[in-house]
């Protein structure tokens, strides 16, 4: 599909006479975890990011009256589904943003497609969102389990930790992350010696860590996120896991997790991110504004909400519509170049293609402040980071 870089779009661009018209009313719903294990990496910070995007887009001067609302899905698909239906049927919501927890995201994606609205997902990771459970109006913005596996799984195996044991959150995201990482490990010459699944969310990882210790694995892959990852790492330290010669690979770890653990505990950890606040001058400038509003540095989920909202609003402005199929088609036909993710584009299946980055957590001596936590190891081009569209199982792509 031929794509064009977003530029200034006016009625005159299409050879049409400019005329006064009513503003387009747009309601954006930020649906996420506001009270549980993902609240720090998502939560209210995503609401702040969405409102920053509306302000930076200067929506009002472009004829868009935009309202941002929010709700807590509590990481439960039934609650998320009920909120999505009410938002679409009664509250006039045009697009839902964020939605961490893959099981909730997949449920909301179905309801969104039925309502001909847009889901711009920044928080969930399952590749099923653009694979076998894809929907034409789902845009998967920030990361997915394949990109995480490619970055962290590949790097850890290639440095010599060949035998893996997985400690996996027992729901769609954890399963997907384990599956994708297993593929990378085996392709890189490693082997999987075992795995165990823990409830989501969990507080006591002791029995699971004992199984991992007894497995003889070189590395314990943590296929979980947020508070689960932080708690597993803390308890692994209490059990002396790393002192016994095994290493930990947090397959999805956010800067808020590293900050909570501290450089002393997290130092040397390798992780994959789509965004880091200190990556360049543009990310530093935006992150400073975000921190002023929110009180902490942004995660890649927050950054994805901002960038996805900007691209969505550009689509509404350009098309003069909030219909999901119309805006999704525009978003897929037009590339973006924003200050947080750089250049990228939305594939036909809804997967957003942009660079991913492999980082290593600094030692306490290297760190110059509480949020100065990463050293850049390498950048993975988007076309390499994410799975190819061919063979993904996305029906509407394969049929087109």
UniProtKB/TrEMBL annotation:
Highest taxon of source: Bacteria
Cleavable signal peptide: 1-20
CDD domains: PBP1_SBP-like (cd06327)
Residue span, Leucine-binding protein domain: 25-362
A GO BP annotation: amino acid transport
InterPro entries the record matches: BCAA_transport, Leu-bd, Peripla_BP_I
UniProt cross-references to SUPFAM superfamilies, sorted A to Z: Periplasmic binding protein-like I (SSF53822)
Keywords carried by this UniProt record: Amino-acid transport, Signal, Transport
Family: Belongs to the leucine-binding protein family.
Name of the protein: Leucine-, isoleucine-, valine-, threonine-, and alanine-binding protein
């Amino acid at each position: 599909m031929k794509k064009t870089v977003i530029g200034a779009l006016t009625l005159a661009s299409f050879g049409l006479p400019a005329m006064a018209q009513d503003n387009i009313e747009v309601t954006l719903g930020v649906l996420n975890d506001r009270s549980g294990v993902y609240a720090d990496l998502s939560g209210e910070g995503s609401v702040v990011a969405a409102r920053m995007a509306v302000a930076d887009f200067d929506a009002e001067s472009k004829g868009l009256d935009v309202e941002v609302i929010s709700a807590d899905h509590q990481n439960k698909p039934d609650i998320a589904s009920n909120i999505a239906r009410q938002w679409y049927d009664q509250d006039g919501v045009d697009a839902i943003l964020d939605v961490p927890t893959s099981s909730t995201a997949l449920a909301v994606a179905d309801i969104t497609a039925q309502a001909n609205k847009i889901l711009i997902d920044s928080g969930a990771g399952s590749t099923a969102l653009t694979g076998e459970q894809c929907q034409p109006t789902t845009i998967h913005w920030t990361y997915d389990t394949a990109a995480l596996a490619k970055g962290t799984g590949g790097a850890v195996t290639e440095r010599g930790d060949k035998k893996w044991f997985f400690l996996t959150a027992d729901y769609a995201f954890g399963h997907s992350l384990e599956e994708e990482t297993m593929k990378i490990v085996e392709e890189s010459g490693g082997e999987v010696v075992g795995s165990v699944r823990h409830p989501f969310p969990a507080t006591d990882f002791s029995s699971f860590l004992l199984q991992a210790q007894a497995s003889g694995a070189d590395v314990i892959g943590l296929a979980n996120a947020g508070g689960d990852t932080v708690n597993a790492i803390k308890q692994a330290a209490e059990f002396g896991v790393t002192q016994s010669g095994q290493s930990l690979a947090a397959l999805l770890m956010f800067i808020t997790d590293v900050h909570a653990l501290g450089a002393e505990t997290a130092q040397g950890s390798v992780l994959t991110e789509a965004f880091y606040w200190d990556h360049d001058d543009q990310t530093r400038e935006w992150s400073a504004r975000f921190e002023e509003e929110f009180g902490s540095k942004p995660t890649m989920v927050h950054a994805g909400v901002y960038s996805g909202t900007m691209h969505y609003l550009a689509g509404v402005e350009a098309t003069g519509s909030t219909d999901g199929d119309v805006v999704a088609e525009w978003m897929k036909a037009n590339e973006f170049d924003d200050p947080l993710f750089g250049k990228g584009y939305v594939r036909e299946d809804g997967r957003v293609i942009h660079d991913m980055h492999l980082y290593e957590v600094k030692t306490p001596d290297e760190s110059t402040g509480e949020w100065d936590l990463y050293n850049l190891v390498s950048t993975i081009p988007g076309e390499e980071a994410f799975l190819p569209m061919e063979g993904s199982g996305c029906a509407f792509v394969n049929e087109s």
